[in-house]
Design a protein that fits this description.
Distance between the termini of chain A: 17 Å
Structural class of chain A: mainly beta
Oligomer: heterodimer
Radius of gyration of chain A: 11 Å
Radius of gyration of chain B: 30 Å
Number of strands of chain B: 14
CATH class of chain A: Mainly Beta
Largest sheet of chain A: 5 strands, antiparallel
Number of helices of chain A: 2
Strand content of chain A: 35-45%
Strand order of the largest sheet of chain B: 2-3-4-1-5-6-8
Helix content of chain A: 10-25%
Largest interface: A-B, 33 and 43 residues
CATH architecture of chain A: Roll
CATH superfamily of chain A: Ferrous iron transport protein A (FeoA)
Strand content of chain B: 5-15%
Chain lengths: 75, 699
């Protein structure tokens, strides 16, 4: 499962970010294995995604989100 | 004089770093550029206790020392070069209490450079509302620093910060992280080869494109041991480093920061739901744009009329009070109308920067980017292109610079190429005066025809920008990794002081920058219009009097004919008449031709040029608009500025690339003359064709 599969309001734990398509900057914003990600909002026309990752609010496009492996969290 | 303490202000974007800078320095700031590059350099002086002064340098906002843009590399280049004249005695790292975790990443990096650092935790006024409490002592001990908890909004903690700065010598320079933990063999080797160098600095040199002191990237690369590290391997190490840093930060914050979620009231979600709504989001955005245009057209009109009349009266006053002569003429006909052409901009530019500053400060601009990204992508642009396109309504120069945070090169290049189509404030004076002359009064649905025309021109500019972006998107064969990341900061009520300072600084920079060019051109023009070769110019009076002796003209009328004849045969008149064949099909005469030539330096020169030309020609000090209204197209027996020639002029100015400063900045940002030349040729051709079609169909 990847970050692009999340539904609005769902929370997930980030599992793997080793894909070369994920820029360092995103990791520095807190997108790292073990951290929590919540999908806050989806923009009109279903892209980009507005996320809360590790308490940082940011938006990325789906094309990046599909490279971030996650696991749904029960919280 | 005692030595000033050199302070560098560093922090993530959206942490209120600029507010802290403003609180420390007030209006005591100088804004300039770093040598050789166009990154804005802001510095100021701050008075500390006991008569000590601090020189504060506000570095560009950055998320980390791993630079990914020109703005960010300024920070790392300064911090790695201890010989730089700006190298700080103390670094003040500004963080936002709500985003402390992420903001601390940069703090740990700076600490690891062994620079004495103060941690500013800003926006403390929001703590109660968000249910946040901090254990300052614990933070200070774990992070080996001193903390200043500040609220620029309530002006709290600034004195504490000033005290900490003056006692910077007592700050610890210990690192937060032992960088060799990342991979002991690799870093152990590195240290063996460079025993006198600090490991983290070496690591930054390897991963970044910077040099410091004698240790250059080349020198390290030359050592085979480190060269074998491929980019993927390096990236993996950087990833490990980031994880280590967050582990450290999480451990510190576990005790240092607690959040009581029950106390937190979240306005953000409610606002986001409306402002990024698939219908209301767009409705609100476009209503805001309409409000901005209304302000520029309607509200700015009153101070502008006042300025226009004041300068006309001033010119008249100079003529009547100073003794007659060349010098008086130069002041009254060259310098004053020229200056008036600059000053008249101030209300509109101030309004534009006011709105842009409010949109940025409030956090709304990020929502617009979020809302527009998918739409803009269809045209080969990015959601982030919206900011340059909106800033472009103020001036294309800062707008082109604002494209720097667009990650993909192709998206960025297209944004740069199309931004000059948006209606910048330099076009406004031209639009306003032509609209007032050729568009009839009256209104439709409560909006005047004139305001509607102006709005149409704005939409035309945007339409042209987006349309040509689409074509470029299809035509340009550039492969670039496109990538998009934007922070969505919390909403904030803009601080009056910050907005005020931005408006004053930007307006000042624009007026002085443009003012010098306009003033110089006005003076040159006046000379060219006041002198001419041969008898036609020098014996104008005799020739005209003789030719018209059969007509019984009043003295006033005769004088005017003489002045016209003289102008026509002055140097500038000759230049204007020589290009008349080219512009006649567009409905212009040689006087407009002169204005078009001079406005290739900058569009706003158009009105100033006509002001200078018409005041050389006429005696009375009436406002420029009235002078233009009186101009006739003798061949057709209609006013010179009629609907056909007016529309033709409006379209010409809407499309033509007439701004040398923009061309220069595009050259700098794209690092090639190819793109600005392309802009110049294509845009000006479109302008000529559009003006030609408009005039020929309407006349």
């Amino acid at each position: 499962m990847t970050l692009a599969d999340l539904k609005r309001g769902q929370v997930a734990i980030i599992k793997d970010v080793s894909s070369p398509y994920i820029p360092l900057k995103l990791l520095e914003m807190g997108c790292l294995p073990g951290n929590q990600a919540r999908l806050m909002m989806v923009a009109p026309f279903s892209d980009p995604l507005y996320l809360n990752i590790n308490d940082t609010h940011l938006a990325i496009r789906k094309e990046t989100a599909v490279h971030i492996q996650i696991e749904l969290s029960n919280e | 004089m005692s030595k000033q303490i050199k302070v560098a202000l560093i922090g993530n974007p959206n942490t209120g770093k600029t507010s802290v800078f403003n609180s420390l320095t007030g209006l005591n700031q100088q804004v300039g550029n770093y040598p050789g590059i166009t990154v804005e350099r802001k510095a100021g002086v701050c008075k500390l206790p006991k008569g000590v002064k601090a020189h504060i340098l506000d570095l560009p906002g950055t998320y980390s020392l791993n630079a990914s843009s020109l703005d960010e590399s300024v920070v790392i280049e300064l911090l790695l070069n201890a010989n730089d004249k700006d190298y700080p005695d103390v670094a003040v790292v500004v963080t936002d209490v709500e985003n402390l975790k992420r903001n601390l990443l940069l703090f740990t990096q700076i600490k690891d450079l062994n620079i004495p650092s103060i941690l500013v935790i800003n926006m403390s006024d929001r703590m109660r509302k968000k249910g946040i409490s901090l254990d300052i002592e614990h933070l200070e001990a774990e992070l080996k620093t001193k903390v200043a908890l500040t609220s620029t909004r309530k002006n709290e903690g600034i004195d504490l910060l000033k005290n900490l700065i003056s006692n910077y010598k007592s700050l610890s320079t210990d690192a937060c992280l032992d960088i060799s933990q990342i991979e002991s063999s690799y870093f152990g080797n590195l240290q063996r080869i460079f025993p006198n160098q600090q490991l983290y600095k070496l690591w930054l040199v390897i991963t970044q494109d910077v040099n410091f002191g004698q240790v250059t990237k080349k020198k390290i690369d030359a050592l085979s041991d480190f060269k074998v590290k491929s980019d993927t391997k390096l990236k993996r190490l950087q990833q490990k480093e980031t994880i280590k840093r967050y582990q450290f930060i999480n451990a510190v914050l576990k005790k240092g920061k607690t959040v009581d979620l029950n106390a937190a009231t979240d306005l953000r979600i409610k606002l986001d739901r409306i402002l990024t709504h698939k219908v209301w989001g767009y409705v609100i955005f476009f209503s805001l744009l309409m409000l901005i245009f209304q302000a520029i057209y309607d509200w700015a009109q009153y101070p502008m009329d006042f300025i226009d009349e004041t300068f006309a009266a001033l010119s008249e006053l100079v003529k009547t009070t100073l003794p007659a002569g060349v010098f008086t003429d130069l002041i009254a006909e060259g310098i004053i109308p020229g200056l008036g052409g600059v000053v008249i901009f101030i209300p509109q530019i101030a309004f534009l920067f006011l709105f842009i500053a409010i949109l940025e400060e409030s956090g709304y601009m990020s929502r617009v980017v979020f809302l527009m990204d998918k739409l803009m992508r269809r045209f080969g642009l990015s959601g982030k292109s919206v900011v340059p396109l909106i800033s472009g309504t103020a001036c294309a120069i800062p707008a082109v610079m604002a494209t720097r945070n667009i990650e993909g090169w192709k998206e960025r290049l297209i944004t740069i190429l199309v931004t000059p189509f948006t209606t910048c404030s330099a076009r406004l004076p031209v639009y306003l005066i032509i609209i007032a002359l050729v568009i009839p009064e009256g209104s439709f649905l409560g909006l005047s025809y004139q305001a509607l025309m102006l709005m149409f021109l704005y939409l035309l500019g945007f339409g042209m920008a987006v349309g040509s972006a689409y074509i470029l998107h299809k035509v340009l064969k550039i492969r670039s990794k496109s990538f998009f990341l934007i922070e969505m900061p919390d909403y904030k009520v803009p601080q009056f002081k910050n907005v005020g300072i931005t408006v004053v600084e930007k307006t000042k920079a624009f007026v002085f920058g443009a003012g010098q060019i306009i003033l110089a051109i006005s003076i040159i023009l006046w000379f060219l219009a006041s002198y001419g070769p041969g008898d036609d110019f020098n014996k104008a009076e005799e020739i005209v009097t003789e030719n018209l002796s059969s007509l019984e003209l009043s003295e006033e009328e005769l004088n005017q004919r003489i002045a016209s004849y003289q102008l026509e045969h002055s140097y500038i008149g000759i230049a204007g008449r020589s290009i008349e064949p080219v512009i006649q099909p567009l409905g212009y005469d040689w006087k407009i031709g002169i204005a078009i030539i001079t406005s290739f330096a900058a569009r706003e020169v158009f009105v100033g040029t006509l002001a200078t030309i018409y005041s050389v020609e006429s005696e009375e000090g009436e406002p420029i608009k009235e002078k233009m209204r009186g101009e006739r197209n003798a061949k057709l027996g209609v006013p010179r500025y009629n609907l056909a020639s007016g529309m033709s002029l409006l379209l010409f100015y809407a499309f033509a690339m007439q701004c040398m400063s923009t061309l220069a900045i595009v050259k700098r940002e794209t690092n090639s003359w190819k793109w600005p030349m392309y802009q110049l040729v294509v845009m000006t051709s479109i302008a000529y064709l559009a003006a030609l079609i408009a005039y020929q169909t309407l006349i």
